[in-house]
């Protein structure tokens, strides 16, 4: 399955949370789902999107780990922190541009989506992709996704001036080649009456 890629299509997510339930059943996660389904703009919409580790080419979580507990395998999968090394400092949680790592305080270990490494390394699909009824999460060859979808995949994300490339692809409207996010675009605009005179 080396030619298979992981794709997220937010426009297809129906918020059923099947992916969360399936992820929690993955043996390596010990009953805790490493995927979340989040509301895009809960105040104004019921739209949801699944959030998984994007497996960055140059993972910030691993760079800021003082114990060298986070490793990236040769196939590009960024693993959860190694239990014997993780010091539960939460540097990885704070540094991830996608907000993915979770500090499991009861285990004193950072855990996150590892693309069901126990399954994918044995030629199986990740748990979440096997149960997603709308195919918002898909694990297929790139040629198949190109044939079946009008959106196009990208693995380039711009956070302000920083460009992040990932193993996981996000489906976006054709005509775009990257996703650009600037935190200023999402800052809360306070009530003008609360501003100092």
Task: Describe this entry's structure for a reader.
16% of the residues lie in helices and 23% in strands. The chain has 197 residues and is α/β, with parallel strands linked by helices. The chain contains 6 helices and 9 strands, in the order βαββααββααβαβββ. The protein is globular. The N and C termini lie far apart (62 Å). It has one domain (4-189): Alpha-Beta Plaits (2-Layer Sandwich), CATH 3.30.70.20. The strands form 3 sheets. A 5-stranded mixed β-sheet has the order 6-1-8-7-9. Strands 2-3 form a two-stranded antiparallel ribbon. Strands 4-5 form a two-stranded antiparallel sheet.
Summarize, please.
By secondary structure, the chain is α/β, with parallel strands linked by helices. Helix content is 16%, strand content 23%.
Question: End-to-end distance, in Å?
Answer: 62 Å
Indicate the overall shape: globular
Report mean pLDDT, rounded to a whole number.
89
Number of helices: 6
Strand order of the largest sheet: 6-1-8-7-9
Helix/strand class: alpha/beta
Q: Would you tell me which CATH topology applies?
A: Alpha-Beta Plaits
Overall number of strands: 9
- The SSE string, one letter per element, is EHEEHHEEHHEHEEE
From the alpha carbons, calculate the radius of gyration and give it in angstroms. 18 Å
Unreliable residue stretches: none
The major beta sheet can be summarized as:
5 strands, mixed
Under the CATH scheme, which architecture would be assigned? 2-Layer Sandwich
Q: Structurally, how many domains make up the residues? A: 1
Q: What is the top-level CATH class?
A: Alpha Beta
Strand-residue proportion = 15-25%
> Helical proportion?
10-25%
